[in-house]
Amino acid sequence: MKALKYSRQRESIKEFLADRRDHPTADTVYMNIRKLYPNISLGTVYRNLSLLASLGEIRKVSCGDGVERFDPNIVPHYHFVCRECGCVQDIPMEPLDGLETMASKGFAGAIDGHTALFYGVCNACRNKEDQ
Amino acid sequence: MKALKYSRQRESIKEFLADRRDHPTADTVYMNIRKLYPNISLGTVYRNLSLLASLGEIRKVSCGDGVERFDPNIVPHYHFVCRECGCVQDIPMEPLDGLETMASKGFAGAIDGHTALFYGVCNACRNKEDQ
DNA sequence: ATTTGTGCAAAAGCTTTGCAAGGAA
DNA sequence: TTCCTTGCAAAGCTTTTGCACAAAT
């Protein structure tokens, strides 16, 4: 395997992501990093996000809207997706232990992980509707 | 709203999907329907799959591989995704009742649905490795 | 000096859409 | 006739990639 060299672009992507709880898309990352490094390219953002994800430093999250999101929290957890605004939030709940064993019953294959997505309308959207 | 008119293309898409347990992609549907209607276009396939999904006759399934899949089974259920070949299978397990209530605890928003994806290696792939 | 990372632009996938022609009601 | 659906092609979006140059070791 190849050695990893320092890059301030990668570093700033990591730092930017670390503070975010909203699971930004590659484009959001790009738009924000550009404030600091106006010449950074979208390709570089994608390359680094992929790299960081494969290193296990961040996590790629698919929420079914055709765009990948990135999460600095690598501890297993569930997500909520708002049907109206599409925002993604963490669910304050421990992942169910033993769910994989349960799912394995009568299933032809070896299960070793799971994710869950919850759907609904976020509070911000509900407040808007009330008015 | 607009009235729905019969189309043999849509009908054949529905029939094709009805027999499948493997959650085909739009392209797979297209390739297969073409055997019957060689002039059908990919756009028509996409339009009808979207329409059928919005009518609730089929279900769009996102499995995190950047491609949408389509499922004739509209009853809520969980899916398994093979890490090696990417195949998608149904999990023989009832969706957990009360999971949404559990997830709602301490969460800012109204939850009214959920999906779950299980990961692992399917039997077909495991058998290949053994040899 | 060597090897990795970047910026730019082009290309690649998947999906959607505009439009004129065809088909159902 | 009226309105829906189709085929075709173009466009849209997100993501990946080739390449020459820049930066790190």
Automatic annotation (TrEMBL), chains A, B:
Residues given in the record as Zn(2+) binding sites: C82, C85, C122, C125
Binding site for Fe cation: H114
Organism from which the protein derives: Fusibacillus kribbianus
Listed cofactors: Mn(2+); Fe(2+); Zn(2+)
Keyword line: DNA-binding, Iron, Metal-binding, Repressor, Transcription, Transcription regulation, Zinc
GO terms under biological process: negative regulation of DNA-templated transcription; regulation of secondary metabolite biosynthetic process
Protein family (similarity comment): Belongs to the Fur family.
Protein name: Transcriptional repressor
